[in-house]
Design a protein that fits this description.
Length: 252
Amino acid sequence: MNNLNLLKDKVAVVTGGTRGIGFAIVKTYLKNGAKVALFGSREETVNKAISELKAENPNYDVIGYFPKLTDYKEVESAILRVKEVYGKIDILVNNAGVSARDSIFNYNPEDFDKTLSLNVNGVFYPIRAVVSLMKEQGGGVILNTSSMVGEYGQPAGVAYPTSKFAVNGMTKSLARELGKDNIRVNAVAPGVTRTDMVAALPAPMVEAISKNIPLGRVGEPEDVANAFLFLASDLASYITGVTLRVDGATMC
Ligand code: NAD
């Protein structure tokens, strides 16, 4: 969504901000007047994302880091660096995540741990690192990327829906715990969205899912980013503890 300036002078951190849904969130936030620190997994992808954004608009105020999201110390020092650069953090978007489709009968236990580690610890760690800061500032907004499978489950790759159910639980629980500190905590649950993660799925699976979408199409990253814009903005000032579905009313 262009130039509504809904996030004028806000500072946002977006994990998994180098591509897909996260990159669309970063772009939408920048277009709406925010300063953004994007976190990615590698220096090259972070630099590439920043170059692309600066090529679009040299005035975008964007920086990037690549902390290992499963290492609390790395996450904490990246958050502190953002605070040093911009002086505050108003919005934290925990968007990085990995998916898996293995059958339970040959599920590798280490892969289960890996998915849970990034999708759950990788959400908890940035929150843990930022909450005191937000409390001192008088408030903030925390947004997590869930998934429609966090409501319906998924008939394969059990770690992924398990992790998204956990994200929903963390969202609701922290909304209750942090309301008194004026920190709102919400999640967005995308349906099938056109990103690399979806490109990696077998085509028949995507077709089967798409048939169940009443709006007749898969989502675009921008559809999801617009929900993140609304929830981050003051338009959502009385909304906390929700998981907002952005899935065209997909029936799984
Ligand atoms: P994507 O694969 O295009 O992007 C994933 C992002 O996560 C990338 O920016 C990547 O750098 C980051 N990431 C992956 N592993 C990481 C690691 N170990 N450390 C740090 N960062 C890492 O995927 P996407 O579709 O844009 O997914 C973004 C979020 O949306 C995920 O949480 C995903 O579960 C969720 N989601 C996606 C869909 C969909 O259909 N695309 C649907 C529902 C939910």
